[in-house]
């Protein structure tokens, strides 16, 4: 992502991230001057990185959940 950020600064345009037909690839563009691809990885569920990602994701969901209620206590969607 650091390199994509450098392209956005160099071309003075925001990055656009778009899904592709292959869920392991994300197309990254910056105006009509820059095109790149971001490859996703899948870690073994028992690896340290996968466990750290799960803890981080759960923590974010816990913090974001109050923002999904509209102040009424009614949940707008289901947390993953």
Structure description:
The protein has 80 residues and is an alpha+beta fold. It folds into two domains: 2-39, no CATH class; 43-75. Helix content is 34%, strand content 20%. It is built from two helices and three strands. Strands 1-2-3 form a three-stranded antiparallel β-sheet. The protein is extended. The model has no long low-confidence stretch (mean pLDDT 83).
What attributes does this structure have?
extended, 3 strands, 80 residues, alpha+beta, 3-stranded antiparallel sheet, 20% strand, 2 helices
Q: In a few lines, what is going on in this structure?
A:
The protein has 80 residues and is of the alpha+beta class. It has helices spanning 2-11, 48-64; strands at residues 16-19, 25-30, 34-39.
Write the layout of secondary structure elements.
Blueprint lengths: L1 H10 L4 E4 L5 E6 L3 E6 L8 H17 L16
Please outline the major beta sheet.
Answer: 3 strands, antiparallel
Low-confidence stretches: none
Q: Residue-averaged pLDDT, rounded?
A: 83
Q: How many angstroms separate the termini?
A: 25 Å
How many individual domains?
2
- State the helicity in percent bands: 25-40%
Could you say which overall geometry the principal axes of the C-alpha atoms support? extended
Strand tally is 3
How many helices does DSSP assign?
2
Strand order of the largest sheet: 1-2-3
Order of helices and strands: HEEEH
The SS-based structural class is: alpha+beta
Radius of gyration: 17 Å
Strand content: 15-25%
């Amino acid at each position: 992502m650091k390199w994509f950020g450098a392209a956005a600064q160099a071309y003075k345009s925001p990055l656009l991230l778009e899904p592709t037909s292959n869920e392991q690839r994300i197309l990254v563009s910056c105006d009509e001057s820059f095109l790149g691809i971001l490859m996703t990885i899948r870690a073994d569920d028992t690896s340290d990185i996968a466990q750290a990602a799960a803890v981080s994701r759960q923590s974010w969901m816990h913090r974001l959940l109050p923002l999904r209620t509209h102040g009424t206590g009614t949940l707008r969607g289901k947390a993953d």
